[in-house]
Structure prediction request, 296 residues.
Amino acid sequence: MALSPRVADLVPYDLLVSVATLGSMGRAAVAHGVSQAAVSARIRSLESALGLTLLERSPRGTRLTPDGALVVERARAALDAAHALDEGVAALRTDRAARLRVAASVTVAEYLLPRWLVALRAELPGTAVTLTSHNTAEVVDDVRSGDADLGFVEGPELPADLDGQVVARDRLVLVVAPDHPWAGRRAVDASRLGSTPLVAREPGSGTRDFLERALGALAPPVLELGSTTAIKNAVAGGAGPAVISGLAVAAEVAAGTLRTVPVRGADLQRRLRAAWRRGRAPSGPALVLMRIASRR
Prediction:
């Protein structure tokens, strides 16, 4: 049921209660930071809307009529409820501003976001962050549905209903076990790589989508695995080659458990993006995190 026009605006009631409490229109005007004429005009408009005389005005001052006293009594309860509502909404806004829900593709979540979140905590110590890690398609779903305030994806493109900004770059690398036949090669042609069954991420992975676009086509994978760690272990165990983020294999390459092989004829550098719902630009902690990611 819609509110009556008589009570849709509580400001005149607030002024009337102040007149009753403080004893004059002049004091009420000072308390509200407006002119006495403005107070008088708003209360006259209220009287006209209600069809009641609320104040008796005389050279000696202003006092409530019996009807005015009853209206003030009821208005106090309404104003108390309005103040409680305002305080509750303000508390919700403050709580929301101190929370940040982030969804990120696996590479970003495991190898970049931890440092970014440490920096965010230094800038905004009171911010509580919830991080979920999915493949790129699932991150897009989280952002689209509002389950995440900000997403980080590694796919080649964003859907039309999301906006985004490049925040980092990453290079995919071909890795093999030290005893794999490709381990001693100077390079592998892109066409050869595309026709070779690989240890790969599951469909929907940004890495897989990017590689398919970079090579034009991919052979059916020898294994499909849901995590970068599983892929690295499978490659080291001899399951076959894989193409994954250079960030993800730096430690294994340094330790000698995996070998990188250059790829000839394909550009494997990709852009990592922050993503959000179109028309809802990041603000508060989300904006700070995005700036941190871009700086680093």
Summary: The chain has two domains: 11-96, 99-291.
